[in-house]
Amino acid sequence: MPGPGSDPALQQTIAYPGRAPGAEPDPAGDGARASLGALRAEVAKAVVGQDAVVTGLVIALLCRGHVLLEGVPGVAKTLLVRTMAAALSMDFKRVQFTPDLMPGDVTGSLVYDAKTAEFEFHEGPVFTNLLLADEINRTPPKTQAALLEAMEERQVSVEGAARKLPDPFIVAATQNPIEYEGTYQLPEAQLDRFLLKLSVPLPSREQEIAVLERHALGFDPRDLSHVKAVTSAEDLAVGRAAVARVHVGPEVLGYVVDIARATRQSPSLRMGVSPRGATALLGAARAWAWLSGRGYVTPDDIKALVLPALRHRIQLRPEAELEGATPDGVLDGILTAVPVPR
Ligand SMILES: Nc1ncnc2c1ncn2[C@@H]1O[C@H](COP(=O)(O)OP(=O)(O)O)[C@@H](O)[C@H]1O
Ligand SMILES: [Mg+2]
């Protein structure tokens, strides 16, 4: 059973194959898929395992979504996102969310220039392609809200003037599942703004041995100069256009809606998935179908994305929580109960 701590469905398949037999010729799309596939091998030069997290980030880039990474400290969340940025040749910034961080520290602020006697806007770290928002639940709601607003609107408004963020712009926010004291849990309405919530699990025994071996051989996580840029913004644009052409049949639409409706009726849940959540699930599954070399979405694509796309959009009833229910467990139960179209 896929417990909390892994997204096994995303780990399978993808060698990001070529085109499916019988599919329309799409040389540009095939090239983009191959270059996004090369990302995994490139990230693997620094990070052992965590393939599902890399795939989740690629899906989010294709969907213009943001991701929440949950895992205990020391499982290479920071290393992974830094390596991704290098392999994507994207501008990268990292913000450590602390209790005293102010909204302006994220978005930027007006600074008075004595020489010109005018206020000038100094861009905050949010003006980047890939922002690592580390330990987002350690900062008070006001600063969280500033980030979430920038994520949603893809712009920053200061003193009435709107400033556009670069494209692509993706936030990878991390949170530690364990430390609840002195932290500010993100409100549900704001969690909904993340396309995917990915678990970053502890490594297996073999993987951990591989990590130690690398370090023994002199691997320095601060030096990523051996990581090459294998994907360009152009590949990403071509990929997005190809994902938009992925066909979705009426039976798949019905399946997504049946899953969403089942979450609203589940006795274990206080709050089910909104139509926005259902849309997010479908979009992510479409990107995944394209990465898997298909021009159409299957029910299996939907199943593969249900946990990462929905686990942060549902709320357990306190009684269910006391009985040991988890969001992943409830969603697994729903997947077993909802009839799969064929
Ligand atoms: N899967 C892994 N592959 C390679 N190095 C790892 C892995 N897990 C942990 N490490 C090592 O542990 C360090 C801690 O990683 P870091 O990215 O700071 O973790 P986190 O952000 O999750 O707290 C890394 O820099 C690396 O040296
Ligand atoms: Mg870190």
UniProtKB/TrEMBL annotation:
Residues 66-196 form the ATPase AAA-3 domain. Keywords: ATP-binding, Nucleotide-binding. Gene3D superfamilies: Magnesium chelatase subunit I, C-Terminal domain, P-loop containing nucleotide triphosphate hydrolases. Residues 261-330 form the ChlI/MoxR AAA lid domain. Residues 1-31 are annotated as: Disordered. GO terms for molecular function: ATP binding; ATP hydrolysis activity. The keyword Nucleotide-binding applies. Pfam families: AAA_3, AAA_lid_2. It comes from the Bacteria. Belongs to the MoxR family. This is Putative regulatory protein.
